[in-house]
Amino acid sequence: MTSIALATAPDLPDLVDDDASFLAALRERGVEATPEIWSDESVAWGEFDAVLVRTIWDYYRHPEAFAAWVDRLDAAPTAVLNTPETLRWNRHKFYLRDLEARGVDTLPTEYVARGRDDSLAEIFERRGWDEAVVKPAVSAGAFRTNRISREDAPGEQPWFEELLADGDVLVQEFADGITDGEWSLIFFDGEYSHSVLKRPKSGDFRVQEDHGGSVDAPDPSESLRSYGGEVVDAVTSELGGDVPLYARVDGITTDAGGETAGFRLLEVELIEPELFFRVDDDAGSRLADALLDRL
Question: What Cα–Cα distance (Å) separates residue 74 from each residue in 40, 63, 77, 79?
């Protein structure tokens, strides 16, 4: 029997309800699928046929432990998906600069290295922005993320310096289109599977449900699917031809709907994305089949 460890966080020992259909699909295919805590040093990862990284939603709070864990997985005699190389690259949001260099349309961004003596107000002045979103390069779920106006930048300078003391930082022009909704286009083994449209609550910019956001599942246009596929292709090229087993491409449309709408990438999630199995009855089976095809 194929044995697969599903890496998860300490406060999610049984994964999340949304993954239930995926777990069922694995077990229907004769797989012994076992959730294991990623930070539990007693787990013998090499005894499994594969390790699938799933809901390790606290990894960004423990960057050194996470890096060491990825190294242990890399040295273990087991398949790891997404691959250790992919996990290392995607953990730090400066990867967006790599994708921009490959022609992916991303938000205008200042990539500020840790400890750099920089003025938030000067960034606004230099860029000509009215609003920006500032966040750590290693983060998830809007952790330590702040929306700042040009007028408020001088007063936010101490907070900005505190953030820079802890790590690299992204300063991104605020995207007005986020209030119209953020698309999450989900791909398994390079093929489009399904998608959701996430919207922030009134007066907020964060689309996560933990912050009051909502999720809907309209059908994206063919052009949006194509844009998402181009992002996955760019990721694959950046990783030397390694197609991610799962990828969630998050972005906004740059025009008002329709087949001609453009797409601007916000993030591509390759470590622990929520995959929204609940909006598509067959999505769990598709990922299960794609996973087993790799083994």
Answer: 16, 16, 8, 9
One domain for residues 151 and 221: no
pTM: 0.92
Per-residue model confidence (pLDDT) at position 117: 85
Tokens of 128: 């000509």
Please say whether the beta carbons of 284 and 21 come within 8 A: yes
Dihedral sign computed on CA atoms, order 12, 14, 15, 20: negative
Task: Please state, in angstroms and rounded to a whole number, the distance separating the CA atoms of residues 150 and 161.
Answer: 16
* Same domain assignment for residues 135 and 224: no
Q: Say what the pLDDT of residue 36 is.
A: 98
- Asked whether residue 185 is assigned to any structural domain, the reply reads yes
**Domain range for 147:** 109-174
User: Taking Cα atoms as reference points, which of 199, 248, 190, 254 lies closest to residue 223?
Assistant: 254
Query: How far is residue 233 CA from its own chain's centroid?
Result: 16
| Cis bond upstream, residue 82 (ω within 30) | yes
Report how far Cα 149 is from the mean position of its chain's Cα atoms: 26
Q: Give the residue ranges of the chain where pLDDT is below 50.
A: 257-260
The DSSP result for 181-216, as a single string, is: -EEEEEEETTEEEEEEEEEPPTT-----GGGT-EEE
